[in-house]
């Protein structure tokens, strides 16, 4: 007799409701393929109800004092902290990453929630007194209305928390569409948000696939769309939502390079590279997936391979695990196919993780650390975002040659240089055409009071998530020019010019 698995709910107008859809998808544990729950592909009517609830709630929420909004997020961050272990366990079960990495996922989102609690100073406008005769000019930052977010599978806690807290804290209402692959931790975070005091209709959640994405892009009452995910989908979302007159920000694919100079601290550099390349099974948009060894640093390759080979591949719930499974068997098939293509194109497979076997988790979607040398920019393993624990190693004779190589790649999410030379680091940061730069920091994701600033092929839209830029994204500036007269002031003559002096 089959066991009934729970169904993931929708959140519409403050109520967690069962979808009336006929289309469902299983949520599976990547380490065991056990079915954990089922998620609905919500109907058009359910999306309409979510947007309608958000639209109605906006009328009162936009007038809610900033202090009231801030206190909700102060409560929310407390609830997240109190439930950190539970959130991480849920995340690991459905996404596969290790428990410590899952806690990190939640924590990086929590930092944005904390920042949302201090949103008051970020919404301050500008004021100039007496810009002309008794004329003052000032600006107001006002919310724009119903906003929406579409989030990926690889950070099911952090990225939703990038989106709805800042949108709601600035006075907007929100419709969230989590990844259909692992929405359970997202929904638990949503439950905590409701418990923290977010009023009904201010936050709504729908689930689904391409039809739901298109519905969000097309809906006339949604004013802004935030997206994180693959380049093909992000490009589609940007074009479709922009054509519908919406503000859009899309954070997309990447091919992040680390450039290693011969003078770098060897021990610290190798450890940083192994963690940033293979952690989270390479399923990070900021993972280092291309390594450029400059000059004598190319001699470090054997030691790098030895350190990578020692990483422990296992289920994320097991102690001592370094690399968990990929999200689905289909993802595993894609990654192993690209590895084989790299071999066929002539790259040297220094470390092959395809034959890894994990005792007790034979059905898991596991691949061990995989390392290619002799990679050239024309190879598929270099051109494509593999999204697995696969590192492509290239070589350069000089720093300038390395910079040219990185700048020739169409993506611009993040890059890093490892060196002890301040001059080399300065030259790198000035001449590299990538939005986020690390100096002896392999994954240069900024803290929330700075903005995430990926560039070029990794980003569409001018403004990034969180930080000051996202306040601009979720608000519109209104400029007011005012002049007040004393009651007993004499009326002047008619002035038909635009000069206010």
What does this molecule look like?
- There is one protein chain.
- The protein has 501 residues and is of the alpha/beta class.
- It has helices at 44-61, 66-82, 84-95, 99-116, 119-122, 158-169, 184-196, 210-218, 231-243, 266-278, 301-309, 329-344, 380-383, 399-408, 422-431, 467-473, and strands at 10-12, 15-17, 24-28, 35-40, 127-132, 135-143, 146-150, 173-177, 203-205, 222-228, 247-251, 256-260, 288-294, 348-351, 370-373, 390-396, 411-412, 415-418, 437-439, 455-456, 459-460, 475-483.
- The strands form 6 sheets. Strands 14-15-16-13-12-18-19 form a 7-stranded mixed β-sheet, with helices on both faces.
- Helix 2 (66-82) packs across helix 7 (184-196), helix 3 packs across helix 4 and helix 4 packs parallel to helix 6 (158-169).
- The longest helix has 18 residues, at 44-61.
- It starts with 9 loop residues before the first strand and ends in an 18-residue tail after the last strand.
- The mean pLDDT is 95.
- Belongs to the aldehyde dehydrogenase family.
- This is methylmalonate-semialdehyde dehydrogenase (CoA acylating).
- It is an enzyme of class 1 (oxidoreductase).
Give the structure's gist in a few sentences.
This protein is of the alpha/beta class and 501 residues long. It has helices spanning 44-61, 66-82, 84-95, 99-116, 119-122, 158-169, 184-196, 210-218, 231-243, 266-278, 301-309, 329-344, 380-383, 399-408, 422-431, 467-473; strands at 10-12, 15-17, 24-28, 35-40, 127-132, 135-143, 146-150, 173-177, 203-205, 222-228, 247-251, 256-260, 288-294, 348-351, 370-373, 390-396, 411-412, 415-418, 437-439, 455-456, 459-460, 475-483. It is built from 16 helices and 22 strands.
